[in-house]
Design goal:
Layout lengths: L2 E6 L2 H5 L2 H9 L10 H11 L4 E2 L1 E6 L2 E6 L1 E8 L2 E8 L11 E2 L4 H13 L6 E8 L5 H7 L5 E14 L4 H7 L2 H16 L4 E6 L6 H12 L10 H10 L9 E8 L2 E11 L2 E9 L8 H16 L3 E3 L6 H4 L4 E12 L3 H34 L1
Parallel strand pairs: 6-8, 13-14
Antiparallel strand pairs: 1-3, 2-5, 3-4, 4-7, 5-6, 8-15, 9-14, 9-15, 10-11, 11-12, 12-13
Amino acid sequence: MSITIETINTTEAFKNLRKEWNRLLEQSPVQSIFLTWEWLYTWWDHFGADKTLHILLARDSSEIVGIAPLMITTAKRLGFRFRMLRNLGMPDVDVAGLIVKDGDQEVVNHFCQEIQNASRQWDILELGEFPNAVLDPQTIVRQFHEANYLSRLMPKLHTFIPTTGNWEDYYKTLAKHHRRSMRRKERLLAEEHKSVEYQRFNEGKVRPEHYNIIFNINAKARFPELYATESLRNFHLALAKPDVLQHAVDISFFLVNNVPIAFDYGFLYNQVYEAWRGAYTPRCSEYSPGSLIFLKLLNHNFTSGYLGVDLLRGEHDYKKRWRGYDRPFTLLWVVPRRKVLACAAYIWLPDLKKRVVSLLKRRNADSRDAEGED
């Protein structure tokens, strides 16, 4: 294998990669909607104005055998500005990293070397979140020589729920108190004579009006900023265009008395539902609509023959209730040692904070033990 690296830094060149990009993704062990050309190009088209493309292509002869979807952007920390080389689409992508044919480590090594060759263009490298089963974080770190670079790894977990078995068997694995709680909410709705309906739109059935419902619900929910600007809303509407990802966008609603009060929004990719976002109307929280809509979605996944539900990033307690299993991912930072301010902001101070928090936890635990002995 004779590998050469090419850098793509124009939108036009990025635009022309669609077929080769997705052909390579089909041969990559990392499979996610967030690594498709359609998702990343649409994101770049809407949010790339103040950033610089830095996509690396690895070629073996004329064949593309690897893509490092990167960009250079400005990051602010401790009152300083830093040039950050990071995955394209961050912080909005839930799965990132490198796209490599058959996970070939030689290609990964070439990418790491090329990134080092361009180190005068960046202050911090940020990769992730990427799956450890495909890209070994320690192997990547070893490519950046310890004498010249510092690194920091942040372990992450993504919960996956297989939906290929029997629904009733799966339902019985849920904790009894969790099942009782959801049954109580369903009884409450019935006792109040409220009609309940679950709707799911996917496989090309999503329309702009479905997004308008999402925008309206989310405006009153916990994170109203997610769709607060016209540019954000236009990005999501663009994803669902027929020539983009309309076939993959997957939106569910939970309706009470014919009014949508909750949504789940994600993508159906390779028969796996990637659960990206969800919200509900706060005034209806007594019904636990977030739990009820997800229960309906899981049931629909089982009965439709889909392979599973990927709960993506974010280690929240509610995910544990659904009895999936955790897959290890990593968020990685690499900083050249000569860039002292960047080392302080992204390596030394976060590490010091981690040590202090750990020390305080140990002291608190020791204090509680001592009080118990008294």
